[in-house]
Design a protein that fits this description.
- By secondary structure, the protein is α+β, with helices and mostly antiparallel strands.
- Helix content is 28%, strand content 10%.
- It contains five helices and four strands.
- The chain has a four-stranded antiparallel β-sheet.
- β1 and β2 form a beta hairpin.
- Pathway: Protein modification; protein ubiquitination.
Length: 230
């Protein structure tokens, strides 16, 4: 009897697992929901220092389709999030996760949507960037978008948005303690490169952070002082 061939999506995900082990993305802690299931990942995001999310520990679930990487995964926060681009159920609304279809009414360029050259690394970096730099032109949460714009335009004098985020960050500390996770709160901690342990079954992708220096860049360098902070 011929051996059953592994689906191409599983092969792609195994390669991504290996890549993330060898070159982790700063600010994330990743595990497989079940050891034998490559299609469901649990992600914990550490809030970047010098932002409203500093010290936060935000959990999310990534579900990959069977035709990955030709179709995008879904990214849903399990932690309650108040953000212009996150729906009430936790689903993240971001161009990179939208299917590569021509939809002029969306206001998105086809180049901004998902394509098979994207990967989990670009998704993680896009999501953490989105936290600090929301898109208020097509919000998933209109009330959060209005509140964010008031905060930004008042240069922090209108504190309603910042106070909500601060309370959510504080609420995540209990979950971090329960999981035995030390959340980085300084750039020095956030940028520590930790060697990832080797696992034959790739079921435990735990890592801290990876940064070259205290620089900011599109390829995942650390966040220095940004415009939006506490």
């Amino acid at each position: 009897m011929a051996q059953q061939q592994m689906p191409s999506s599983q092969k792609a995900l195994m390669l991504e697992v290996k890549s993330l082990q060898e070159e982790p993305v700063e600010g994330f802690r990743i595990t497989l929901v079940e050891e034998s299931d490559l299609y469901n990942w649990e992600v914990a995001i550490f809030g970047p220092p010098n932002t409203l999310y500093e010290g936060g520990y935000f959990k999310a679930h990534i579900k990959f389709p069977v035709d990955y990487p030709y179709s995008p995964p879904t990214f849903r926060f399990l932690t309650k999030m108040w953000h212009p681009n996150i729906y009430e159920n936790g689903d993240v609304c971001i161009s990179i996760l939208h299917p590569p279809v021509d939809d002029p009414q969306s206001g998105e360029l086809p180049s901004e949507r998902w394509n098979p050259t994207q990967n989990i690394r670009t998704i993680l970096l896009s999501v953490i960037s989105l936290l600090n730099e929301p898109n208020t032109f097509s919000p998933a949460n209109v009330d959060a978008s209005v509140m964010f714009r008031k905060w930004r335009e008042s240069k922090g004098k209108d504190k309603e948005y910042a106070e909500i985020i601060r309370k959510q960050v504080l609420a995540t500390k209990v979950e971090a303690e329960k999981d035995g996770v030390k959340v980085p709160t300084t750039l020095a901690e956030y940028c520590i490169q930790t060697k990832v342990p080797s696992h034959d079954n790739c079921s435990d992708l735990l890592y801290d952070d990876l940064c070259d220096d205290d620089t900011v860049g599109e390829e995942g360098d650390c966040y220095e002082d940004r415009e939006f902070r506490n």
